[in-house]
Amino acid sequence: MSAAKLLKANGLTPVVLEARDRVGGRTFTVRNRILRLAKEYGIETYKVNEQESLVHYVNGKSHPFKGSFPPMWNPFVLLDFNNLWRTMDEMGKEIPREAPWRAPHAEEWDKMTMLQLFEKICWTSKVLHLAELLVNVTVTSEPHEISALWFLWYMKQCGGTMRIFSTTNGGQERKFVGGSSQISEFMADELGDLAKYVIVATPPGLNMKMHFSPELPPSGTS
Fold first, then answer.
1. Residue 127 φ/ψ, nearest 5 degrees
2. Binding site for FAD: residue ranges?
3. Tell me: the pLDDT tens digits for 9-20?
4. pLDDT 10s digits, 170-197
5. Nearest to 87 by CA among 120, 115, 113
6. What is the CA radius of gyration of the chain?
7. How does it sit in the membrane (predicted)?
8. Is the pLDDT of residue 29 over 50?
């Protein structure tokens, strides 16, 4: 949508078609660009309250705590947790932001899931569980579903393991008054829904499930 907005500003008339009714997909907020768009549309933010306790619920029990992560009294678990974060950040340093496929171990890491990577790094079951939650919370996926290369690159883009979960000067510091989806909705209203040409960026197999008028040529459905 940002690309379409830029094209419109340069005199073109692009239209963005979303696969779902909700525009914008998962609008991430750990970036300055999204904040600039929010300011442009007059959408305000507010700081998240970090004065009260958070709750870590596991095995049917609630454990209140303060800070970004639940406390760990076992020194081996604490060392394991620290090693996991440091290892992920160190691996992320090898991945170029603009071309992650050029990382020295790109092919190896891309063939590995995050679950496989966690199982190699983590020493304790508690840290392995927290690592799995990390993936669940940040990208709404299971560790066995995503590439290690992609997730390490994603964490690097967010500023590293500590920043993405930190409140002050971190990924959890602010929220949008009225919700982040407003930004995409403003952009959708601005772009409109009529265009002369269409670029269909879907796999050819899915094109068979769409209705076109006039019909696509055979080359467009094979």
1. -70, -35
2. 18-19
3. 888 888 777 666
4. 556 667 777 777 877 888 887 777 777 7
5. 120
6. 21
7. Single-pass type IV membrane protein
8. no
pLDDT of 1 strictly over 60: yes
Give the strand pairing for 174-176 and 54-58: unpaired
What is the arithmetic mean of pLDDT over 123-130? 91
Residue 147 is classified by DSSP as B
Phi–psi pair at 175, nearest 5 degrees = -130, 160
All structural domains of the chain:
1-48+176-222 (no CATH), 60-172 (3.90.660.10)
pLDDT of the residue at 52:
66
Binding site, annotated residues: 18-19
Listed in order, strand segments (DSSP E) in 45-176 are: 45-47, 54-58, 61-65, 174-176
The pair of three-digit structure tokens given for residue 18, joined into one six-digit string: 């979303």
